[in-house]
Amino acid sequence: MLTLITGAVQDRSARGIAAAVSRLITAGRLPAGGRLPTVRTVASELGVSPTTVSEAWRSLIHAGAIQTRGRSGTFVAGPLPPRERLRYTQLGGMRVALPRDLSTGVPDPALLPDLSESLRRVGDGRWAGSYLDAPVLPELEGVLRDRWPYPPERLTVVDGAMDALDRIAGAGLRFGDHVLVENPAFAPLLDLLQAVGATVIGVPMDSSGLVPEALRQMLRDYRPVALFLQPRAHNPTGVSMSAARAGVLAEILREAPNLLVVEDDHAGDIASAPPVSVGTHLPDRTVHVASFSKSHGPDLRLAAIGGPAHVVDAVADRRLLGPGWSSRLLQGVLLDLLTDAGAIAQVAAARAAYAARRAALLTALRARGITAVAADGINLWMTVPDQQHALVALAAHGVAAAPGAPFCVTPLPGDHLRITAGLVTGGYDELAGVLASAAFHTSRGSGRRGLGHPHGWR
Q1: For the whole model, what pTM was predicted?
Q2: How large is the average pLDDT for residues 174-190?
Q3: Buried b (16+ CB within 10 A) or exposed e, 315-332
Q4: Are 227 and 179 in contact (CB under 8 A)?
């Protein structure tokens, strides 16, 4: 196996080694279950440092091509069904239907604006344009630019926030690229970055966003090509980055002039915090994604991408070879919702309702000694001694929650659950009692004491 690997390597960089081994695995020349030579053995044979080979192995692990088994060594991964590898598929908690499902992270349908009047107003065919028309309705682009946290050089509309992140990653990332994300991070984003073969590094967070000194150190250690973050109502923790923190991070990011910042403002108009963006300071290197799924309706399937022309144009040009554009009819509905006084009032009411629900559940939990955070958005991040035991205990009470582990790039102090507080419309004391019972039951049953501190925040 050693000869096969070293003979296939032409480029002796970490990326080149990883690519060569990946090709051997894809071709079936390195069979599933086969044990790989040690890092030092491969490094010695190739005449490179063990660090270079370790980095290559790390890229292959993140891509799911190989797996480590502790002291037993590193092996070629077996042919697992793709869904079993996805963090996203683990978020359903116990994977059984329960009466109260708080694992979903979706908005309350009752708080979405009524589309009937908007559909009636735009259903007269005015948006039935030509294939050659601009992909974004000019009127909608004007409204979006007025709402943008900084003047974007270019702007386009795609089919939701994950579509935006997928297309940005596809346009700008290559196999083995180092990419920074928040830790914890949105689980589907981690799946997406793994799918493109990026090497993902988690940056610790505190109550204002990324920890500046940790970011500075990781820029020096890894020389990443991109940073993905959620500026408001972070999923899963609810943290919103402060304007002051955005300025501090921007100064640090000036040390990495080739790094691209990608912001996913997924909560949009239901976020209580004001819009904030690193792009205010670094507009030429920041791509901001504004989603309207949680605020105006998931089935609108619309998000806007704004930022430097070389990134947004690459996304728009590639889309011309596929869907071409997002439905102009739905763009017309969104335009109507963003400018209609009644719809604006409905979204404002939803924002206030979500804030009240978060606060009520958080207060009830804290009264029972539970450590949790829910600063913004629709989610609550709760610390428990043992994730699996807590999920089982909650299921016994008919409650489903999302496990915290799929959100973590690297383990955090303590285990966590994500609760969709935005779906809790009442009975806060009763639900808090169930959640507390699950946590304390876990503590007694596992012999582990205390509930820890969320994120290890400073």
Answers
A1: 0.81
A2: 92
A3: bbeebeeeeebbbbebbb
A4: yes
What type of residue sits at position 175? F
Q: What is the pLDDT of residues 117-152, one digit of tens each?
A: 999 988 777 766 667 788 899 999 999 999 999 999
Residue 309 binned pLDDT confidence (cut-offs 50, 70, 90): very high
Q: Give mean pLDDT, residues 73-102.
A: 74
Kindly give the interhelix angle for 341-366 and 428-446, rounded to the nearest 10 degrees: 40
Q: Given phi > 0 = left and psi -120 to 50 = alpha, else beta, which region is 450?
A: left
What type of residue sits at position 204?
P
Residues 92 and 51 in one domain: no
Is 216 in the same domain as 137? Answer: yes
> 85: Cβ–Cβ under 8 A, 6 or more apart, which residues?
64, 194
Q: Rounded to whole angstroms, how far apart are CA atoms 153 and 149?
A: 12
The owner of tokens 């090709």 is 23
Number of domain units in the chain: 3
Q: 326, 120 in Cβ contact below 8 A?
A: no
**Are the C-beta atoms of residues 350 and 112 closer than 8 Å to each other?**
yes
Looking at the fold, whether 359 and 387 belong to one and the same domain comes out as yes
Q: Mean pLDDT throughout 26-42?
A: 90
- Supply the CATH number for residue 166's domain: 3.40.640.10
Q: Is the pLDDT of residue 93 over 60?
A: no
Greater model confidence, 438 or 271: 271
Cα–Cα distance, 197 to 191 (Å, whole number) = 10
SS3 68: strand
Range of the domain at 209: 114-339
Which tokens in the block code for residue 458? Answer: 């400073």
CB atoms within 10 A of CB 340: 15
Shared domain for 129 and 269, answered yes or no, is yes
